[in-house]
Design a protein that fits this description.
- There is one protein chain.
- By secondary structure, the protein is an alpha/beta fold.
- It is 40% helix and 18% strand.
- It contains 28 helices and 21 strands.
- A seven-stranded parallel beta sheet has the order 11-12-10-13-14-9-15, with helices on both faces. The protein has a six-stranded parallel beta sheet with strand order 16-21-20-17-19-18, with helices on both faces.
- Helix 15 links the parallel strand 11 and strand 12.
- The protein is globular.
Amino acid sequence: MDLVPALEEPLKKVLGPATAKVMAEHLGLHTVGDLLHHYPRRYEERGQLTHLADLPMDEHVTVVAQVADARLHTFASAKAPRGKGQRLEVTITDGSGRLQLVFFGNGVHKPHKELLPGTRAMFAGKVSVFNRRLQLAHPAYELLHGDSDETVETWAGALIPIYPATAKLESWKIGKAVQTVLPSAQEALDPLPPGLREGRGLVTLPEALLKIHRPHTKADIADARSRLKWDEAFVLQVALARRRYADAQLPAVPRRPKPDGILAAFDDRLPFTLTEGQQKVSKEIFDDLATEHPMHRLLQGEVGSGKTLVALRAMLAVVDAGGQAAMLAPTEVLAQQHHRSVVEMMGELAEGGMLGGAEHATKIVLLTGSMGAAARRQALLDLVTGEAGIVIGTHALIEDKVQFHDLGLVVVDEQHRFGVEQRDALRGKGKQPPHLLVMTATPIPRTVAMTVFGDLETSVLDQLPAGRSPIATHVVPAADKPHFLARAWERVREEVENGHQAYVVCPRIGDEEDDPKKAKKSPEDEAEKRPPLAVLDVADQLAKGPLQGLGVEVLHGRMHPDDKDAVMRRFAAGETDVLVATTVIEVGVNVPNATAMVIMDGDRFGVSQLHQLRGRVGRGSAPGLCLLVTEMPEASAARQRLNAVASTLDGFELSRIDLEQRREGDVLGQAQSGARTSLRVLAVIEDEEVIAEAREEAAEVVAADPDLASLPALRTALDALVDEEREQYLEKG
């Protein structure tokens, strides 16, 4: 790799070992290039400062302010019993608000000399509350002197970069380190093809790096950001375009269903007609399956839009054409459910090789990690001989021992739970690359689909099958209005009395060891000093209290698989009234008679997760009810999140809200497992146009020069984005 020597220089050579160590451990920065791409989060103008009035609690902040007054107090304490303890209280102001700083003990001498009224400085520390007033205890600070050669005017107008910092390394120390390495920016290789850069009027990369770290005007910042956004979008889209290009070169066996085969027999059995959406998406899939290159399609559909049926028809088409299909599910509960519902939907068509099986029947096997040895041996044998046309399983399918007679299609359910490597391991089991269908019930905004799943074509199922009922969702503020919670349990009883069933969902199981090291508390937890509600405790309280006399059972991920399956079967058969569960029921659980769901501590779940959970009710003809219980106050962000979920059933709308509230990095980090695509300036929602344009440009560049032979700087940027393991993965395609 022809990597840039100056930017590859390790920081410990340039900055000294102590600073370099903190940067590596706390900020993940190892080389000069890493530091140059650690951009300021925002800029302070010396003349106009962060509003002290808007300080967030419990966060590390950097503020620029003026000392209003400073007082030294003496007091008696255990360490200084004779009244020799010293406390310095400094009040700073920025015109919008005032903030107290406190220094204790020997730490008072230096600030007492330096922080005189009228002095301006940058202060950094963690905001806390003392005596109902905001304060910073022992903040680090840096005095702001107007240098003699700078006039007061230019000094007041200068922009101070504020960097994403940590308690161990303040923003201005990062700024000084950047100042040290900034000359190396001149040697940064520009990944954008010159024609593209000039055509869009973007500044060069060295200029963009100088402007983002040392801007003179706000226009400098804007120029730098629009250029760096293009870099991020374009390099990522080139990686995806190369993958699509490589995939399009691979050979695959075309799979066309027979006109009178198992698919036709299955369609005849269906008691209903497919929705328009299902017909349209099925056609897209069948067209792909008939080509000589592997299909790579993402099928996203609303909760309950009938994706499983579409996937099953695709699998049957492949069986018709003499191949096998594998469906990969993220959990054993879900694999068992899929297996059970597929066998039910197919009836005698699923009894291949058995007496009473239909003429075109095939065998459907289940493969999970917890199966007994004999059942597992039989399943593996059915796959390698081709006896089984369809296998449904967990990642046990990926193991080396699993071999197929002729794998033609891989269906991955709930893709966001699987890394790309797992997807590829299963695809590697075909004699030729199999076709790939990826399904997700978490609707993804278009830009995220272009970014995260940019190597896949997308199909969307957005209409619900006829006969599905609407779900009413309400927030139950248990702390403000306890009688609302009592009413929630009454509603559950009413549903059960009407012959229906209910779920109660809790954030944790309740038999965890209390490991103090693991118990990382969020600020909300700290605020309430209460651990998340647990399945085992809640089930016990309900059975003895508000739901006394009803059949209550529990379900969670650490139960033995046979026990889980038994609980699910009893619930599906209507023998249990109320199932108290963790999020193991989040995807794929289908019990049409369950009409109510109460989600405890709703504020501890993400928006998409709540939408997924809610999709478990209202699956039959009776309307669904979902109650989100929370103790968070009215004004909190958590309550706004819950209100958003209660206000709409549109998963795409919710996924936008979800994305705006979480940082994109989480979304991409999770899905691009193995990639260091931490987007720094590109915001997936706001920069939709940049991403769409970058995708087009990338496709043109790759079509004209797939190996990027004429663009060495772009190759270098790709190598930096794609670490070794990921590069192999792109090549595996």
